[in-house]
UniProtKB/TrEMBL annotation:
Name the record gives this protein: DUF2975 domain-containing protein
Native source organism of the sequence: Mucilaginibacter myungsuensis
Taxonomy, superkingdom: Bacteria
Lineage of source species: Bacteria, Pseudomonadati, Bacteroidota, Sphingobacteriia, Sphingobacteriales
TM helices/strands, residue ranges: 12-37, 67-87, 108-128, 134-157
Presence of keyword Lyase: no
Length: 171
């Protein structure tokens, strides 16, 4: 179990860093576009780039400078910020000394809801209205598989919590 805690701790911090990166990127994109900051560079053929703060070096490239395309970028990048935050919470659950907790079940539940409900709805909307030709079906399938595993683990955790409650009654 010690190895699981070590790996979970490393994965927790990595997912927090990824989450922060995605969320900050989403905020930077929104602020740059809404306030037309110098970090927003217009390119030929109605394309655009979002540059790193305080530089002229682009790190996000947009195919079309339109509100629908920018909303799509914000949705996808923001979703992955949320995804990595929720995944970090799952890893946080596995770091604890007491494994089967109500809070752990809640973390797993939020993770599987995001993967089984939010993700397919978001990618279905994007599949209909998107200007990009991305493999949304593959992405949704991967998220559904992760969601199903999280659902199963949440059910196991619920059984563990119930067994711990029964054990506490006998002692």
């Amino acid at each position: 179990m010690r190895l699981v805690r070590i790996i979970s701790a490393i994965a927790f911090y990595l997912t927090r860093i990824l989450s922060a990166g995605y969320i900050l990127t989403t905020l930077h994109l929104l602020i740059s576009v809404i306030f037309t900051l110098p970090t927003l560079k217009m390119l030929p053929q109605n394309r655009f780039a979002i540059c790193y703060p305080f530089t002229d070096k682009p790190f996000l490239l947009g195919s079309v400078y339109e509100a629908s395309y920018i909303a799509e970028m914000v949705m996808v990048i923001g979703f992955y910020g949320l995804f990595f935050w929720l995944l970090g919470n799952v890893f946080k659950t596995f770091r604890q000394t007491k494994l089967f907790t109500v809070q752990g079940i809640r973390h797993l539940k939020l993770f599987y809801i995001a993967n089984l409900i939010v993700c397919p709805i978001m990618f279905a909307i994007l599949g209909i209205s998107s200007q990009e030709d991305l493999p949304y079906g593959v992405m949704v399938t991967a998220h559904i598989i992760m969601g199903i595993f999280a659902l199963f683990i949440a059910a196991i955790f619920q059984q563990g919590v119930n067994l711990q409650k029964d054990q506490d009654l006998y002692i």
